[in-house]
């Protein structure tokens, strides 16, 4: 008889945190450029919990809120430098790149920026 798998703690999984930060930035940009909506830190933390649950991982609420705030900072900084057209393109590329089969040089560069942001925090 197999035991059910318990959720894996993402507390020490740096790659998961980087990917989660990237996904949150992508969602924030998509919500802003496609729907004219800005996500609150709590909404970002909830999205993070949903994303983690799908991969059977977990992260403390405080950590999810922290990543949500970092993603908000990064998304706002990006929006301040992008035209609407460039912002729409960037949001689209990032959302597409959430599929591991989609390869994008832009998304790879932004993933590196997410890594830098997380490391400098």
Placed side by side, the strands forming the largest sheet appear as 1-2
**Total number of beta strands:** 2
CA-atom Rg in angstroms: 15 Å
Residue-averaged pLDDT, rounded? 88
Poorly predicted regions: 1-12
Strand percent estimate: under 5%
For the record, give the distance between the C-alpha atoms at the N and C termini, rounded to a whole number.
44 Å
Tell me the number of structural domains.
1
Describe this structure in words.
By secondary structure, this protein is mainly alpha-helical. It contains five helices and two strands; from the N terminus they run βααβααα. The protein has helices at residues 14-35, 41-54, 61-81, 84-97, 105-120; strands at residues 8-9, 57-58. Strands 1-2 form a two-stranded parallel ribbon. The termini are far apart.
């Amino acid at each position: 008889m197999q035991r059910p798998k318990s959720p894996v703690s993402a507390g020490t999984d740096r790659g998961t945190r980087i990917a989660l930060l990237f996904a949150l930035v992508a969602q924030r940009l998509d919500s802003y450029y496609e729907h004219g909506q800005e996500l609150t830190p709590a909404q970002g933390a909830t999205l993070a919990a949903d994303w983690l649950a799908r991969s059977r991982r977990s992260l403390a609420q405080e950590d999810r809120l922290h990543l949500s705030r970092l993603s908000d900072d990064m998304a706002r900084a990006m929006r301040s430098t992008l035209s609407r057209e460039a912002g729409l393109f960037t949001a689209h590329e990032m959302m597409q790149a959430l599929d591991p089969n989609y390869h994008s040089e832009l998304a790879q560069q932004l993933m590196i920026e997410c890594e830098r942001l997380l490391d400098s925090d």
